[in-house]
Each structure stands twice: as C-alpha cells, then as structure tokens.
C-alpha cells in the first residue's frame, strides 16, 4: 500500500481499535469532543468570519468535467448564501470514478481505512466551520449544528469505518488449503481473497442533517473501496461540499484520485437523483429523505443495494408514571429540539382517556395533556433559550404545514412565531400540540414533519399498544418512547418494540431524550420497519458494500 | 432458554467453535465425513430399501391446514416416484408461522443455533437416505448425490450457522452507558439489544441441487430467528421434504412449533412461488434457479431481502500451459461431472486461434481443442465409469437442448446417449463440445444449461480476456478458470477476476476442479456479477436476516 496511507493508519490506529471495541461493548465513547471548549479558541471564534468569506462566490472542488454551475441556498435564518458549485457532467464523472476504482480497491483495507480516519480527523478540526454551514442550511441552532453536524456526525462516520474494518478484517488475505489423500500426497491449494467494492456509491443527503445522515454511507462505502458521489439536498449543499473538499484533499495527498469523493449538486428545478440512481454503474445508494422517494428508490434502483432512512410515526405511550412533571419536562425538550425536525421527534403520544396512575394519584387525560403543554410553554418562555433550542424551520413547506395542521385536532398548545435577536428574518416557530381521539387516525397516523404533535386519547394502554403496533407496522417509526411503573406493562412495551422493530426508550425523565441517539451505543433506526430499511450502523450496513473474490492455484506444503 | 435447546448447544459446541474458526482461517475442515465408509454399514446398505419404502404413498409432515395433495416426481433414472405431499393452505401457513415466531425469537441465539446444529447432525446421519432421494430427483450419480447432497450440503448449512452465530454474537445482550456530567452525577442508561428476525423466510429450491443450494438459506434464516418455508422444485421435492421432517422433529423435541420449518410443495402446472414471494409477511427470499425468475424476484419482491443464485457463462481462458494433457484431463472431468448440470460447469473455453505455448512447444488451436475432446472421450470410454460420473440428465428440456445446440458450431465431440446397467431408461448423455469463432458470440454467450460447451477461437489472450470481461459483465459467471505459465498474464487473470467478481481457479491440473467449491474455504459465487446477487456464504448473507432492536432505561452505577 502507499506509504502515506500506511502512515495515516499508524497515526489513527488507536482510534480505530477503540472504535471497534466501542461498537462491541456499546458504552459511552467518542474521540471527537462535543464541547466547544476542547477546540482551539481561534477555530471557534473565527468560524463566523470564515463562513462569511465563503458567501457569494463559487466553492472550489475538484471536478473532472464541469457541466454547469448551480446553487441557490437560503439560510433559514433569512439570507441568501449566494454560493455556487460546479455540477459535474454525469457520464464523465462515472467514467472517471470507474477508472479510479481499481487503484483504490487494490491498495487494500488498511490504506483505505487510514485515509478515512484522516478525513474524519480533519473534519473534526473543521467542526466550528461545519457548524456554521449546518446552521445556515438546516436551520439548526448553533450549538446543535456544532454537535450534531460536527463531532456526532463524525462519530457516525467513524462507527461505519469501524464496522467496515471489522467486516473486512474477518476475510483472511490468504489461506493454504491442504486436503489429505490417504497414502497419496495431499492436495494443496494456495488461495487469495480480495475485498472487491460493488461499484459507484451514491449518497443522497437531506436538508436537515446534511452531515450526520451522510457520513455513515460515505465512510462505509469509501472504506470498502467504492467511489462516492455525494448528492446534497439543493437547500443544504455547503456542509456536504466542505466535507467533499476535505476528503479530496486527503485522498490527493495520499496519492489517490481526489474525485473518488465527488459532489454532484443539483437544483430543485432540475433534480438529477433519479437519473443517477438508475445508472447501471451505481451499485450502492444511501438515501435520507421522504418516504415517497425512498420507496421509489427501493422499488426501482434494483441494480443497487439501497439503504434508506425515511420517516415514520414516532410514538410515545404513557401508561403510568411516578411523577408527571419530570416526564413532561423531558418530552417538552424532545418536542422542542430543532422544532421537531428530527427524524426521531415524537409525533404520536398515546394516553388512556381515563387518565393514568401516578405516585401522587390518578391524573386525568386532560391533566396529562395540559401538563405537557405547559411544560413546553414554560421551557420556551425565555426567548433566547427558545431560539437556541428551536433553531429555525428549514423549509417554507414545513412552516406552511404548521398552519395547515391546526385544524387536525383541538389545540392544546398553539405554535407561535419567535423573533431571533441576531437574525430577525429567521423562520422560528414553537411546537403545535393537538389533542385528538384515537378514532381520528387520519390526523395522527400521517407523518406531519415539523413541530406538530398529537396527544391521543385511547381506551386503555392495551389500546395504545395496539394502535402503535398498527400505525408503526404500516408507517414505521424510528423511535418509540414509553412510560410505565408496572413491570408487566414494561415487558409488553419491550415486546411491542421487537414486533414493530423500533428502539424503545423507557421512562426517560432526566437528561436523556427519546430523540437522541448516541453513536457506538444506540442503533439509529433498525431497518426492520417502513421508516428505514437500514440501521445506522450495523453489520448489515457495511457487509453488503463489498464482495469477496478469491483465486486459487496449486501450492506447496510449507 | 429451553433446557433442551441448551443441551443441544452444549452437545455441538465444539463443532460450532471449530466452524467459526474454519470460516476465519479457510483451510480444509468438515465435521461431516465425505466417505461412505465412515457411516454405519446398515445405514448405507439399507438406504435403497428405505427409499423404495417411501414410494407410491403420501410423505408425512406436520401441516397446519392442508389445501391439497401434490407430487409428480419422476426419477431421471426412469421411473415415477409416486410420492405425494400435503400442500399447506398459504394463509393458514403464514399465520401459524407468525404466531410461532416470537417464541423462536425470544429463546435467543444460543438455543436456535443448538437446534440448527442438531438438525444438521441428524441430516448427516441420514446422508445415505438423502443420497437416494437426491439421485432420483436430480439425476446425480449415487456417489455425487451422497457427497454433494449429504455432507457437502450439510457443510454449507453449518457454514451459514457459523456466520449467523458470529454475527449475532457480535451484538452484546446488554450494555451500561455511563456519561460523565462534570460535577453532576453521570447519566446512566441500561441498554438491552435484541436480535429480531426479519419475518418469514422463503427458500426456493432447485431441481439439480435440492439440498446443497437450499441449506445455506434454510439455516441462515432459521438460526437468526426466521420461520422458513421450503418451496422445492416440483421435480425434486423428496430431499427437501426429508430435510423438513428432520427439522420439524428436532424443533418439536426442543419444545418449539415444528411448523417453523414447513414444506410448500407445488406443481409445474400450478406454481405458488410468485404469490408466496409477494406476500407482505415474506421478508427473506432465497432462490436458486433460472435467471428470468431470479431477476423477476429481485425486481418485484422488493418487500423482502432477496438472495439469488442464477446462472452465468462460466469461462475458462487458456493462454499457455506446461503440458496440455493434464490440463485436458482436468477439464474433461469438469465438463463430464453430472453432465455439465452444475452451476459451476464451464461453458466457454477461450483459446487463441494462433494456438498456445507449452513446455513441449507451440500447440495449434485445433490441437488444443482435439486434445480436450479426446480427453473427454477417453475419460468416458468405460461405460460404468461414465454413468457414475455423468449421472442422468435431470429434465427433458436439458436433453432437448443438447440436440438443438449441435448446430451452434462445429462439432468437436458429439454427445451420445449411454445405457445404465441398473436403470436402462435413465436419461444419460455425454458432453457436446463445439468449436466456434469469437465472432459467433450468440452461440457461446447465452447460457446453454447441460453438457454443452464451446471452445472459442480468439485473436489472442488479450482478446480472450476482453471477451470474458464483456460476457461475464453482461451475463455473470460463478466460476472462472484460467491457464498460463506467464506471471504477468496470471496477474491479468487476477485483475479480470476482480473486475467481473468471479472466483478464479488458476492452472488446475490435478485432483481439484474448477466446478468444485469447498465449504468453509471457497466462497461460492461472489454476489458481484449477474449470475448471483449473493455469495454462499459470507457475512452479507446472514447480516441482513435480522435487525437489532434495543431498549434503554435509566440505570444505576454498579
């Protein structure tokens, strides 16, 4: 392998070994600090200025053949970015990637993993800048944009590299096959096993988590030898472009074709994803986005291995609690964070219409619903804190959806616009909380992306479980929360989780939230229900990205 | 877990551990002897009689609800089996399997693997009987039916269990997640991780290798918690039914629903596979058979993970040899074994029209072709040996194809019928070897299933490589053989193998053959070209058969 690449692996070997350990033991671990204080002061303080310097001009990236220049990003905080990006000519891009693939394949797993780890390390150093880009494309508030867009996204990338390394390491490079033949000499074969990438990998990014949802596919594919086309959402190109630039720099320095990671930006008016997805050379597709498009990919891009994360009806079932207040506070945070624009935000909250048991006595349905509404209201009463939690609404469509959803139920807590001190034109809205009956299934069983949730009156906890089973069975879910003080009911929730293949968060009432997912410990989505056909990240997520090609020839006994 | 199942795992623990070791080191290993002498004499001698006793009557299996009785198998050796099998009512079968799944899931990996290993051990003891059933459905000659249908098939099943065990073991049952919070108490979460099966698994068997190609899917799915519907080819039900019976017995003894493994026989006139394959409850499909149906499954059964082994244009490229004779003898065996009805039999043999270099001087194209034809002729000159190698032609369609193929090229060696001493009505034919020019691509680049092969005159070895690249790229291949005395050319073959994702057998001239594939060492097919979208067996083959569902709740520091 290339000497540079070997040095990269040596430099990051401990990180790799610890990551492999972490995915096996699944405790708390990360090499990428989530506190800004751990980053150089200049890197943090200078980030806004460096972001400003990127605006209103072309963004430089390596491109084989330029077909045009695109880019029309608008910050949810209320200004145009004015950055343009070269769009590669598709045929030339595919051809150049296919030409670059054999060298990337033949250099071997160690070199590829070394390069991936160096890319991640440099992305980590760039986290404050990435945070700016994530903020002004996704609308995430700055702290979340930093954590989720920076170290937490890098964690997910590293996790994919660790799984890839583990899977590739399990295939020996060679074997000697010696078969006894009685009195005759044994049959001896020398065998070689090659890790062979499937082909070109297309990673289709989303507008809300342009790095967190992109890094697993990018790094899983790249580590296993596949060139990667990054196709950003037209509204969130910059964080993906910055990522591509870092990858290209590291690849080039290590002696590889930088176009092994290429950006393919497009516009809402002239999308390129369908054509790319059906290109016979594209053998892997990672997609985060709408159910409609994800299902289209699953059904049509049958030449490729397709990994989708779509959306579902994330659900919370409340059976009983010790104290309602900490539960309501916990849920209030989950409903508020990034204005419900996380793929993990609860939408359906099931509560028996007869109310629930608590250590302080029976609480009526309305008391539960009101306590939750008041907890959200109180949590967001300070405008600065509200803005720092809510972030901005990524798209005008989501903003419009809040308005349209008001009629779906009885308003427990109305959504209200907020004014950001620094960015007065920012699109900021508090959560809309509606009360509905279990019979109003059309209201709560369709995904309402954004800060829109339902408290649903059911006949009983058994009924809540049945509804969740049916709704998640049909529509999927990425998260399932549940509350009970009864061990037998807790076991029913555990069974429900397995049945609908949704991860269960039970009785969360402190500083851990149903919509948060920790790399190396939590499997994000399971791949077992309609919300996602893959998990970020498990063995199945990487094992399908390469094949093993062997050769054998007569050999000698040692 | 059930005590019986625990005992089963204890009993077979060493086998399991050694199997896991074997898939990692990939040397020679098997717990199932391939010599008949290692089996009890009575088991071997009594097999034909026990087979006779099965004929002309219903075959007993557990069935939830019987829809009808089917079965019209005809031995390729010339007689009707007259066995009928209960066909389950599809809806009732699916419902009963779904009801049985949670117990099978919840008992855990150890119990499931214990059950699988016991099934395999009993199948091994039954090998002489299975051999009878394989002989009189597939047409394989008795020794091959014993080895390939018995121990070698069991090896492939065990290999799948080993991969499944390894993949499941890598997910911890629990984890404690402890996140420091500065001066505050750490956040502590107790997490559980459940292996959750995808759903009902449909294994569609073929008529030529009813056990060898069926066991990997059966055991990979069953070990990971999925109930399995075995859908045999209508012409080869018995070996699959015998397998199902053993599985049902072991499951029932261990306290599980025997219908977790169920047979769904059908007829050529009223096939059920399409309807079953599109059932929303069917989440896994393993298929061995025609390209047309395999591709239909890949494109239409998008609700399921689909694993296909279809057909391709297995190829041999001859560049140069030390001595032509041992090469010709080696290839003669490969072309003759089971009358070319293996998915690994070479069809296209590329030779430069200028001839090849040997240690004994230049050989013309015609000399190479004639030496090969004569080697086949000589190898099959003894009729008893011929019958013991060729076996019988499984289907009349294959027999007819031999006749139709004569016009495709110049006949180097004509196919001739042979008479079996014990079964005079057996359908036995020697290989047809045709000479064609590289320009006659329509002749050799379509699969001609059966004993039909082409020696193709090319411009040069570079041209041979280019043709193989194009033909395998378009049609796939499960095997690639090559001969050269030049290291540089050997490296080109190695590169070709990686490009077209076909396993390479280089310079085989002794007792190892391009169409043989050893469990635990050889990856059978790669999954990377059109001949198969999966390999038997690798990590990707099992990792997609389950998902991980976790739960988390607040915990205490230990």
Automatic annotation (TrEMBL), chains A, B:
GO terms for biological process: L-proline catabolic process to L-glutamate. Pfam families: Aldedh (PF00171). Residues 92-475 form the Aldehyde dehydrogenase domain. One of its GO terms (cellular component) is cytoplasmic side of plasma membrane. SUPFAM superfamilies: ALDH-like (SSF53720). The keyword NAD applies. GO terms for molecular function: L-glutamate gamma-semialdehyde dehydrogenase activity. Keywords: NAD, Oxidoreductase. This is Phenylacetic acid degradation protein PaaN.
